[in-house]
Batch of 2 targets.
Target 1
Amino acid sequence: SQQGEEDPQALSIQEGENATMNCSYKTSINNLQWYRQNSGRGLVHLILIRSNEREKHSGRLRVTLDTSKKSSSLLITASRAADTASYFCATAPLNSGYSTLTFGKGTMLLVSP
Amino acid sequence: NAGVTQTPKFRVLKTGQSMTLLCAQDMNHEYMYWYRQDPGMGLRLIHYSVGEGTTAKGEVPDGYNVSRLKKQNFLLGLESAAPSQTSVYFCASRLPGEETQYFGPGTRLLVL
């Protein structure tokens, strides 16, 4: 069964607006990662946050992690049309021995010019 | 440096036919993974390998076999394809000391 569940399933915004996506998971984790998938392409790693971290930034991306609520959020600031893609959270469960990731179902983001 | 490549890009099979999907990486990664992606389901792990000659089952291994005879290649086999195996298949790889996975472009498989 899948570990992560993203919310919302789809999000439509205008260029320049901020986009927030949420991810909830079920079991204890080593780390949580966010990936982007452009239509018809493979996934690309965006950012990783470890279980002992609460917030992390990378360029226009801000990720938060609340291990007590088993949830994470990805904020994309000042969105651009090129940010249109699907975004997936992926968790490395504690019992996976660091080998595997479990992906959520993704959020489809549409940024209109 | 090509990264992770997958062959073929697209394939149509009839029910009962067999085929092998090839994943190759030139980054000297120890760990390799096969996922399937279905609409509304995200990615699900089929099999993975933590080194040459080793393989392990993921979440949805039934109907698939894998082999890792060379470090740079990870093969996914369908012995008798079924329509339920219609999907997009992604391969990924990574180093043991890093958590980031690097993905290939995917193989679209249609089983009629």
Target 2
Amino acid sequence: SQELEQSPQSLIVQEGKNLTINCTSSKTLYGLYWYKQKYGEGLIFLMMLQKGGEEKSHEKITAKLDEKKQQSSLHITASQPSHAGIYLCGAAMDSNYQLIWGAGTKLIIKP
Amino acid sequence: NAGVTQTPKFQVLKTGQSMTLQCAQDMNHNSMYWYRQDPGMGLRLIYYSASEGTTDKGEVPNGYNVSRLNKREFSLRLESAAPSQTSVYFCASSSPIGRQAHQPQHFGDGTRLSIL
């Protein structure tokens, strides 16, 4: 959807390096979700952000939502081969149940 | 825990054929969703069911029908398949707490559908 821009489209990173994926909306978001998809599999939920300025971490992955609730970043520290896959952001634009999705970022980790 | 189960995992159809994609969840979720995923386009919502007994159109409903059979099951039907419906289809479920709260959606492993 053009309402939710995700960048970059793809990323090749040397193992051990840090990386950041961004998700940007022109509208204020009610909620922002990050998912990971391995090739040929379903989406695995990573984190949900709802408050402006919120930051959450799980192992080596940190997600942030800016104060205006229009941009989120996903940061991976010291990347590992297990981090490879497609990362998608999904956003609630209003109070109903529907989510709008970014096109995804394909992450490749070089050993 | 099975979570969200989709069948079949793969299917090849000829143009004009019909088929039903099945989805079941065992998490007692109220809401269920059907998405399609195409290269470079992310996920697009086809239909959703906010609760048992209700269904609503999403972003791309044309050419599809759905049935919320009970709280657990939500099926997607292609009445007359077209090559443009070649895609990966995902079913998801969630359980919103009140109309102002959002909860994560849980996804099945997908159905890879090719229409020749």
